[in-house]
Specification:
Radius of gyration: 33 Å
Distance between the termini: 82 Å
Helix content: 10-25%
Strand order of the largest sheet: 1-3-6-5-4-7-8-2
Largest sheet: 8 strands, mixed
Structural class: alpha+beta
Number of strands: 10
Number of helices: 2
Order of helices and strands: HEEEEEEEEEEH
Length: 181
């Protein structure tokens, strides 16, 4: 038993020693460069429901800056980037199609001058209430639904149940008094 433990410990140490010095440190978050130039693409809001409007801005294109945005991944196509009121930034807007499916999509902004571009992530989610995604559709449980959603039929069913409950109570009361049926 001890020999097996020593063998396993020795193997683990040998593997650790042989690992390259540039191995990824699992305790540190990985860096994700977002832009080919310097800067990033700000997407607001970063989470949107289908049909919602999204605004993007970046300082990568410089002053007087202009460019083109591409939201084709989410189905919104291209949109113009124009100088904003913030010095050195460009801004653009697009609407997420109502048919967009939930998921994470890459939005790209390309500067008019040079070959600079930046990307940002847009999350499309179903209608959210306090950060939670609400389900859509129905569940087939096999319970109910025999009469349908008609309010007249529902009222008739409730009345029939009330009459049956009253009659059963009356019969149990007579029996308890000894009057018989």
């Amino acid at each position: 038993m001890r020999r097996t433990a020593r063998l396993l410990a020795g193997t683990a140490l040998a593997v650790a020693a042989a690992a390259p010095a540039h191995a990824v440190d699992a305790t540190r978050p990985a860096a994700h460069p977002r832009a080919a130039g310097s800067g990033s693409l700000d997407v607001y809001p970063s989470t949107v429901t289908p049909g919602g409007q999204v605004t993007v801005n970046t300082a990568v294109c410089g002053d007087p800056g202009a460019g083109t945005g591409d939201a084709g991944a989410v189905g919104a196509g291209t949109f113009p980037l124009a100088p904003s009121t913030h010095e050195g930034e460009v801004i653009g807007r697009f609407r997420v199609p109502p048919s967009a499916q939930p998921g994470t999509y890459e939005i790209v902004a390309r500067c008019a001058e040079g070959d600079r571009q930046v990307t940002g992530d847009l999350v499309v989610a179903l209608a959210a209430a306090h950060g939670q995604v609400q389900p859509r559709g129905s569940v087939k449980t096999g319970v109910g639904g025999g009469l349908g959603p008609d309010p007249v039929q529902t009222a008739a069913g409730v009345a029939a149940l009330a009459v049956a409950a009253a009659g059963g109570t009356w019969l149990l009361h007579r029996r308890a008094r000894g009057d018989g049926i």
